[in-house]
Amino acid sequence: MNAPLDPIRLQDDAPEIAAAAPAIQESREEARDEAREAPRKRRPKRDVDGWVLLDKPVGMTSTQAVGAVKWLFQAKKAGHAGTLDPLASGCLPIALGEATKTVPFVMDGRKVYRFTVRWGIETDTDDSEGQPTETSDLRPTREAILDLLPAYRGEIEQVPPNYSALKINGERAYDLARDGVEVNLAARTVVIHSLELVDQPDADHAVFEAECGKGTYVRSLARDFGRALGARGHISALRRTRVGTFPEEELIPLAKLREVSEAMDDAPPAFALRPVEIGLESLPALRVSSSDAARLAHGQPIILRGRDAPVLEGPVAITAGGRLIALGEAEAGEIHPKRIFHSGK
């Protein structure tokens, strides 16, 4: 059963919750060093279009990661497709230039996470960086965990963590929580496409893999598992292995990008730049003539004519002459341009 919140008990548990702290702190310091070093020299900005599939290190914020990649490529514009907490590592797709127009389609894609739950302690942040709030002596059996998981597959209602980037009356929830303001976030509908127990290295830990839809918080899963099992719990390790069509095997560590750039006298690590259109691989593709491409480029719709014209509805990726021209919306045989791409790549 759940133990009462006892200051003496929490002091006893402190070494457990902080077991990973040295490694996390070391990773954070390395990440901070990289973030500080990246902008140390002014570099001329240039037009760079494409995706960098970054393997984000533990300890670095997503904003710092974007800044480091933007500096390495001397890019004028950059953004990312889905925030990763500093505690998390893994897939952080970074869009440069024209690729930023495709970010919403990548963010809407499914994401895969591998995460470790530490039983016995719930924290205010639902991860190992927070302060303990509840404890339990109970440790769940494998059978109990497996019996629980079906309730968290499919469409579920989930309350986001209090320490999240969601806004309440214009302010971030995590800012309010840090200021001691009581945060009450409403439950939201999210989709868990798959959820599996993949390992139990010891009684205190369980490793899971989840494939989730947009808006799912893995930290909330750990919290809710712990409460449902009477064991309390928090995330002690988290890695995102896939975003949309971007797999773990194609990720490139930031250290590798820096190493290549330095070996080439601070030249951009062009080997890591992927085409803009990979952000649209989930969309139907439509090839058009040069005349139709010109109409679309001027904001004018085109009509799909003829018996062999494709039947399309919704967003489409439009190409002409082997290059990406526009994002369009197909409706009743017409294609309306929504975003025009000016890159020749």
UniProtKB/TrEMBL annotation:
Annotated ranges, domain Pseudouridine synthase II N-terminal: 70-218
Reaction it catalyzes: uridine(55) in tRNA = pseudouridine(55) in tRNA
CDD domains named in the record: PseudoU_synth_EcTruB
SUPFAM superfamilies, A to Z: Pseudouridine synthase
Biased composition (Basic and acidic residues): 26-38
tRNA pseudouridine synthase II TruB subfamily 1 C-terminal domain location: 284-340
Transmembrane regions listed in the UniProt entry: none
Active site: 85
Start and end residues of each stretch annotated as Disordered: 1-45
Biological role: Responsible for synthesis of pseudouridine from uracil-55 in the psi GC loop of transfer RNAs.
Name used for this protein in its record: tRNA pseudouridine synthase B
Gene source species: Ancylobacter rudongensis
Gene name in the database record: truB
